[in-house]
Amino acid sequence: MTRPDGRDVRDLLGMHSRAARFMAACFALTCVISVAYTSSDVRAVWPMVLAIVVCSTAAFTLVLSRGDPMPLGQSLLVSLTGAVTSGLVLSVVPVPVNDMTQL
């Protein structure tokens, strides 16, 4: 919970630091590299690009949001990220997969 002085557990974990924003950017870059490496055999690339946007937005939401607990709307959106991005990627990956990195 947020203390009277405005600090919360996110400050203790360093979630508001430059390092945390850098790690979120590295995560987003990793998603881009993964899609670039595995998108040659998919039926359409746009769902994978949308999955990058959704995952990157969720990562930056975790780092940039204020307050403990996280606001309900943000919590729900971040919670749904895995299901949404999995559905997007699995909808265009060939069956059977050509490379295990596509999963």
Fold and architecture overview:
- This protein has 103 residues and is mainly α.
- It has one domain.
- 62% of the residues lie in helices and 0% in strands.
- It is built from four helices and no strands.
- The longest helix has 21 residues.
- The relative contact order is 0.15.
- The model has no long low-confidence stretch (mean pLDDT 84).
- Keywords: Membrane, Transmembrane, Transmembrane helix.
Number of strands: 0
Terminal CA distance reads: 37 Å
Low-confidence stretches: none
Average pLDDT rating: 84
Reading the helices and strands in chain order gives HHHH
Radius of gyration using CA atoms only: 16 Å
Globular, elongated, flat, extended or rod-shaped: what is the shape? Answer: elongated
